[in-house]
């Protein structure tokens, strides 16, 4: 019985894997002449980006400007919310004077910030009007002229807000 097993071992060692499919040669590709290098085109956003975020929109600029103006108006009211120091709360006059000065300085700083935000909002509205008048081909000429005049008046208002002859 042992002899039979010894006869099977050489047969197991001589086994080879089955041959693979025949290799087919690929047809040679025809040679194309070198294409001249084209200059790069300007960046164009993908359509899905434009669909999601949109391009310039008059209403979008108008809403952003209105939000900035409202935020600026809210900053101007902070000092009224806090209120000025009450002299009845102080025993020391120097401490009252210091708090009064601090309150006035806060009012001045927040007033300046409020004016800046409101000026930026007005500038954005003027920009939106001027851009809409320039690019809005679907509008009647009278509407476009009115938008230009309004935009110029807004810019003049923002620019002349702090001018004084005296």
Describe this structure in words.
This protein has 166 residues and is mainly alpha-helical. It has a domain at 52-160. It is 64% helix and 0% strand. It contains six helices and no strands. It has helices at residues 2-13, 47-53, 58-76, 78-82, 93-135, 141-160. Helix 3 runs antiparallel to helix 5 (93-135) and helix 5 (93-135) runs antiparallel to helix 6 (141-160). The protein is elongated. The model has no long low-confidence stretch (mean pLDDT 77).
Radius of gyration: 39 Å
The low-confidence runs, each spanning 5 or more residues with pLDDT under 50, are: none
Quick one: how many beta strands? Answer: 0
Helix count? Answer: 6
Beta-strand percentage range: under 5%
Q: Give the structural class.
A: mainly alpha
Summarize the helix and strand pattern as letters.
Answer: HHHHHH
Distance between the termini: 127 Å
**General form:** elongated
The residue-averaged pLDDT reads 77
* Biggest sheet character: none
The percent of residues in helical segments reads 55-70%
Key attributes of the depicted protein:
single chain, 166 residues, mainly alpha, 6 helices, 64% helix, elongated
Summarize the model shown.
The protein has 166 residues and is mostly helical. The protein is built from six helices and no strands.
Secondary-structure topology with pairs:
Layout: H1 2-13, H2 47-53, H3 58-76, H4 78-82, H5 93-135, H6 141-160
Helix pairs in contact: 3-5, 5-6
